[in-house]
Amino acid sequence: MKPAPAFKRAEPDARRASLIAACARVLAREGAAGTSVRAIALEAGVSPGLIGHYFGSVDALIAASYAHVEAQVQAAIDAAVAAAGPDPRARLEAYVTASLLPPIADSALLATWIAFWSLVPANPAIARQHDEQYAGFRQRLEQLLAQCGTSTAALRPAAIAITALVDGLWLELCLSPQTFAEGEAAEIARRALAALISTDR
Amino acid sequence: MKPAPAFKRAEPDARRASLIAACARVLAREGAAGTSVRAIALEAGVSPGLIGHYFGSVDALIAASYAHVEAQVQAAIDAAVAAAGPDPRARLEAYVTASLLPPIADSALLATWIAFWSLVPANPAIARQHDEQYAGFRQRLEQLLAQCGTSTAALRPAAIAITALVDGLWLELCLSPQTFAEGEAAEIARRALAALISTDR
DNA sequence: TTCCTTGTTGGACGAACGTATAACAAGTGC
DNA sequence: GCACTTGTTATACGTTCGTCCAACAAGGAA
């Protein structure tokens, strides 16, 4: 009888993806301070050396995880907007509230995000990645606002204010979920959105 | 001739304060990952052992730094409100815009704050400290709103929305200051505040 | 001056870190 | 069934981490 294989080979892309996922889980559970090569390897069920083999350094793996989380968030928001149908106002509302409902409103996701932020002072590449993400978020919001009749001059301040509102609500919602009733944050965002855009036509 | 003293003794409280200040500077400059006992001691110009002597562990020093930064922020906001005079609306506006102007709107302060947040997953004491700070922030805001004529039923959602708006703006302003013109964030906050409270009377 | 208290130093210690690398073995092609 | 490629493991290395502690010395008391 043959002995059971000591390990399984994986498709390079699949292995990379599993390492990224493991990195995100460790970041969420332990914070940036506890996210070491060994911890990630243990979480992924592989040996520590494999991280160096695929990503070169642990910083590169973390940057890749950041990009992956960003893509997930963007995809979830896009899906919510698409599900809202053709009405511009409904699409705008979906865009705003998507961040305040599962799966984006999630403590683990916030922990991951904070871990990334904490790397910004020492890692300009992460900072740039974040800037681009936010610029894109605001730009899409401006498009939705324009379709809802917001005047051109009011587009930029309105997008900034709404983005800030969503970010702040998302932050507080994830930091202390017990503060909010089920769906309360999304409801607050809906009302605030109505108030904000009513003055910008 | 006597040799120059090898070191100077300090009043315990003064020494503690200088260590806290050094800790905050290192957190802002290096991020949480680079904030070690040795780095803090070097920044403060003392030997590493002294941190253990005064705070027991580096976690305790970081928690003390968190409390100190919180107190500074609260003091700056209170000063802004006091300087705004007796008019309730002016006081509310001062409360909101204070966070978006110096000295609170500061990249180093954000870096410090993020470093604290990144410790939350592994450090429940920091998390509790943060919750209390935010609850206090919202409670004062509710008082100011009530004096401006906001109805009792609308107090809580309005305070939450405005707090979120300020947090989000502060975050973006500190993360990428080049995105905003001088005073633009405060101006956006002023207009958004007007829109938000106009519907809650 | 001399003594005493205690703030302060500086190094020792084991643990954990990131990275590099040689040896191993899984799976594919022949 | 055999050889070859290369994904994977396990270990070693030097560094840095947090904590501890014995010795030192600054500054006030007697």
In short:
Chain A is an all-alpha fold and 201 residues long. In chain A, 73% of the residues lie in helices and 0% in strands. Chain A starts with 11 loop residues before the first helix and ends with a helix.
Notes on the structure:
Two copies of one chain form a homodimer. Chain A contains nine helices and no strands. Chain A is mainly alpha-helical. In chain A, α4 runs antiparallel to α5 (88-98) and α4 (58-83) packs parallel to α7 (124-147). Chain A is elongated. At the A-B interface, α1, α6, α7, α8 and α9 of A face α1, α6, α7, α8 and α9 of B. The first copy, chain A, binds a DNA duplex (30 and 30 nucleotides) through residues 5-10, 12, 15, 36-38, 46-53, 56-58.
Number of helices of chain A: 9
Helix content bin of chain A? over 70%
Main sheet makeup of chain A: none
Q: What oligomeric state do the depicted chains represent?
A: homodimer
Q: What structural category do the secondary elements of chain A indicate? A: mainly alpha
Q: Report the count of strand segments of chain A.
A: 0
Mean pLDDT of chain A: 90
Low-confidence stretches of chain A: none
Shape of chain A: elongated
**From the alpha-carbon coordinates, what is the Rg of chain A to the nearest angstrom?**
20 Å
Topology order of chain A in helix (H) and strand (E) letters: HHHHHHHHH
Strand residue content of chain A = under 5%
Largest interface: A-B, 46 and 46 residues
Give the CA-CA distance, first to last residue of chain A.
Answer: 77 Å
